[in-house]
Specification:
Elements lengths: L3 E3 L2 E5 L7 H10 L6 E7 L4 H12 L2 E7 L4 E7 L4
């Protein structure tokens, strides 16, 4: 599930998948994480930014940023385990 760790961030590459698969993969990954880990999601679905903003708000994770280039959307958020 964890693609790799890069610059102390877990990279989750969801390229080529569409809603809701990127968020479902992030939810599955969440079961393996500890607090304050930054997740970097690589996506190609144009709806991914809105989906992850909603996912982070709903899950009380810290949405950090989103950058886009011609082919990829890079979303970063900080995981916080709920008690």
């Amino acid at each position: 599930m964890k693609d790799l760790i890069e610059n102390e961030e877990i990279v989750l590459d969801t390229s080529g998948t569409e809603c809701p698969i990127p968020v479902l993969k992030a939810r599955r990954l969440a079961s393996e994480l500890t607090n304050d880990i930054v997740i970097k999601v690589i996506a190609t679905d144009p709806l991914a930014e809105a989906d992850f903003e909603h996912y982070c708000k709903q899950s009380k994770f810290e949405y950090l940023d989103c950058t886009k280039d011609s082919e990829k959307i890079i979303i970063r958020y900080k995981f916080k385990k709920q008690i």
